[in-house]
Design goal:
With 137 residues, the chain is an all-alpha fold. It contains four helices and no strands.
């Protein structure tokens, strides 16, 4: 026989089970979101390193071209090395997680980073060869 008390007890038990399941699902979702946030922060930091190293390389190159002071050349070379290496962490963090547009954007970034390195290197070489006017264009 089912009395009102038994029915209420069963409903209370079902509500408790539903609450526990909901809490477990929410905790699991929170862990996924925290992992996504951590990954996003790492990607942003890696992209920031790309920007900073490119600016350092360009600053060193410009300082060298404008002054002829070889004191700017060593930081330029260091920054170029950092700039070339800075794209690898971005690609590693995104590996297996990208959609087609993101893959294309990363390929574009890598392509234009290579173009920038060639441009910085070629103008520096022109300056070293004494072709200052061409280097400054």
């Amino acid at each position: 026989r089912f009395s009102i008390l038994n029915v209420l007890l069963i409903l209370s038990l079902l509500a408790l089970v539903a609450c526990v399941v909901t809490i477990m699902l929410a905790a699991r979702a929170e862990l996924r979101f925290r992992e996504q946030e951590r990954l996003s922060a790492q990607i942003i930091e890696a992209l920031d390193n790309v920007i900073v190293s490119s600016l350092e390389a360009e600053s060193g190159q410009r300082g060298y071209l404008l002054t002829g002071d070889k004191g700017y050349f060593a930081p330029y070379e260091t920054a170029i090395g950092k700039f070339r290496a800075s794209l690898q962490p971005v690609a590693q963090l995104l590996e297996g997680r990208m959609e087609a547009p993101q893959t294309a954007a990363l390929a574009d970034l890598q392509k234009w980073a290579g173009v920038k390195v060639v441009e910085l290197s070629s103008t520096t070489e022109l300056f070293r060869e004494g072709n200052v006017s061409s280097a400054m264009k």
